[in-house]
């Protein structure tokens, strides 16, 4: 079994790293005019593809170097199992048990807690683990329950939903083994603002022509409810995960009763 896990890790890491580098190279060559492509294959937004390529390359490097998070967790069998379980939970909650509201021919917003497993992975398992749960969960979810054509922009934003809270917690903890309520609130709030208020409406407007004045207000209302709910759920689930998720020096990330 360890040999099979190593082979899977090698293949997955190599594929992500190669795909990331290829996306960046493709975007740069087309932007500079060095690559002549038919109109159908030309990019309208090279920056998004470059960012997606960077994310893919970082994930691939993390898998190949056997590191899953910013707190030093090894990408061992237990970590891979937890990531796989959270990916499955993300797909079920996001694609099956969420209310999806279309705006014209595109998906305007989703109502549910499908993002929770992604943020949970980022907070308690590290930013790269969170990014893997979000990115792979979006890819799998597209094949399970698609709505329109596949757009890598939204796979990138799904990955950022795990990376951003993970980075915030890494900076807030700074080597400590406990985290208070406010960093968890800040992680959920920042992720929602960056991804759901700014990035996703921008991509919807750029790709599909649906104005942000239409997509942003409902998301603000959603955030007023979602952010406090996610913070409370992170506190409750964090205390459950203390006993099952390893951390540096063998301890779990403890959710204390303190503000910070």
Protein described:
It is a single chain. The chain is mainly alpha-helical. The protein has two domains: 1-65, no CATH class; 73-255, Arp2/3 complex 21 kDa subunit ARPC3 (Orthogonal Bundle), CATH 1.10.1760. The protein has eight helices and four strands, in the order αααββαααβααβ. The strands form two sheets. Strands 1-2 form a two-stranded antiparallel ribbon. The chain has a two-stranded parallel sheet with strand order 3-4. α2 crosses α6 (152-173), α4 (116-125) runs parallel beside α6 and α4 crosses α8 (212-241). Residues 246-251 have low confidence and may be disordered.
Shape, principal axes of CA atoms? globular
| Separation, N- and C-terminal Cα atoms | 41 Å
Reading off the top of the CATH hierarchy, the class of the largest domain is best stated as Mainly Alpha
Proportion of residues in β-strands: 5-15%
pLDDT < 50 runs, ≥5 residues: 246-251
Number of strands: 4
- Please indicate the count of domains: 2
User: Quick one: biggest sheet?
Assistant: 2 strands, antiparallel
Q: Any guess at the CATH architecture of the largest domain? A: Orthogonal Bundle
SSE map:
Blueprint: H1 2-31, H2 46-64, H3 77-96, E1 99-103, E2 106-111, H4 116-125, H5 127-144, H6 152-173, E3 178-179, H7 181-208, H8 212-241, E4 254-255
Helix pairs in contact: 1-2, 2-6, 3-4, 3-5, 4-5, 4-6, 4-8, 5-6, 6-7, 7-8
Key words describing this protein structure:
260 residues; mainly alpha; Arp2/3 complex 21 kDa subunit ARPC3; two-stranded parallel ribbon; 8 helices; 4 strands; 68% helix
């Amino acid at each position: 079994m360890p040999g099979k896990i190593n082979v899977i890790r090698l293949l997955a890491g190599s594929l992500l790293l190669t795909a990331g580098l290829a996306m960046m190279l493709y975007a740069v060559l087309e932007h500079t005019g060095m690559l002549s492509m038919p109109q159908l294959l030309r990019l309208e937004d090279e920056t998004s593809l470059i960012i997606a390529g960077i994310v893919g390359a970082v994930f691939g490097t993390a898998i190949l170097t056997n590191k899953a998070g910013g707190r030093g967790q090894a990408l061992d069998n237990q970590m891979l199992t937890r990531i796989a379980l959270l990916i499955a939970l993300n797909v079920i909650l996001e694609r099956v048990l969420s209310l999806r509201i279309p705006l014209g021919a595109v998906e305007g917003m989703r109502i549910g807690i499908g993002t929770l497993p992604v943020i949970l992975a980022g907070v308690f398992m590290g930013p790269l683990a969170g990014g893997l749960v979000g990115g792979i969960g979006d890819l799998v979810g597209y094949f399970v329950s698609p709505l329109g054509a596949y757009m890598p922009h939204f796979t990138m934003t799904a990955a950022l939903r795990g990376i951003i809270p993970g980075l915030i917690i890494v900076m807030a903890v700074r080597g400590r083994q406990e985290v208070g309520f406010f960093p968890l609130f800040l992680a959920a709030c920042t992720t929602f603002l960056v991804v759901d208020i700014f990035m996703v409406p921008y991509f919807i407007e750029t790709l599909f022509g649906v104005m942000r004045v239409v997509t942003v207000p409902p998301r603000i209302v959603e955030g007023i409810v979602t952010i406090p709910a996610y913070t409370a759920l992170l506190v409750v689930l964090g205390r459950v995960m203390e006993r099952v998720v390893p951390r540096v020096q063998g301890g779990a990330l403890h959710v204390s009763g303190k503000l910070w």
